[in-house]
Amino acid sequence: MRDVDNDAAREFRDLLDDQTFVFAPGIYHALDGRLAEMAGHDAIYMSGYSTVLGQFGFPDLEMVTMTEMVENAKRIVEASTLPVVADADTGYGGVHNVRRAVREYEKAGVAAVHIEDQTSPKRCGHIAGKQIVSRDEAEARFSAAVDAKQDEDTVIIARTDAYGSANGDWDEHLARGRLYADAGVDLVWPEMPDPSRQDAVNYAETIHETHPDLDLAFNYSSSFAWSEEDDPLTFEELGNMGYKYIFITLFGLHSGAHAVYEDFKHLAQDDEQAQFDLEGRYLGHETESHHELSFVPRFQDIEAQFDPEAADRQAASAGFTEEGESVLSSETGDDD
Length: 336
Hints:
- By secondary structure, the chain is of the alpha/beta class.
- The chain is 49% helix and 12% strand.
- Strands 1-2-3-4-5-6-7-8 form an 8-stranded parallel β-barrel, surrounded by 9 helices.
């Protein structure tokens, strides 16, 4: 046990209490965490699928270890001041592994973790072949996770994949939600196999008959074509149903992959014109300067504080300073 003071978890809990819903975009690396904060989001979701695809190029089939996932979470936590919710898959083994996973994520500084009831190796909820563990094993898994917390404010989210799994159904989906709530988890995430409005409504209404104060989580999944639904669910509607935490698992990855692919294709076809066109989009934009995104002025000030010659070197050499241009041209370079 460590004496962990989880300020991020308290902030996340306050958001859940104060708002109709808390939304977090799915990301997989530190810079996207910083960009999410700059853009005004309330929280960040370290998506498991995004991490294994974006960092390793793998499918979401539990091919990445707990330590690799925690290390990525640590980098994201350090890059932003927003509370981070992290994917902890199945807990990576038996109850001892589950307990260790919770504590390692806490030490990394995350506000919340979610653990699911699939067999191991698990898979993305929208890849065929899902199977859930027995109720007894699942109850042990989530009870162990709740008991392992080193700070009572750390948020534990229980995900059930019963609906759409090889050995589950709708009734089991509801029963698992109640079971996990009784085990002491903070939120229940019922993973849905499609973007059905009626399923989301029915689940919230039915489970709240027995657990009226239970907060739910909702995956506004990137596997679904929400824009093609006749009447797609809105975040506001979901929040009013009790889905207090809403997230889009692969939003950052889809956004980034689409933009990078299109620009790389343009670059392969049109050479330097692609760079000119890219500059037309980012010059003057909040993301214009990679130096500012990485807080170069702050690090230059620290360097000058401890190295007496650093300030002189910075003044005597070409390059970005806090007072200088974010992106240099030959004219600005000559003036320097």
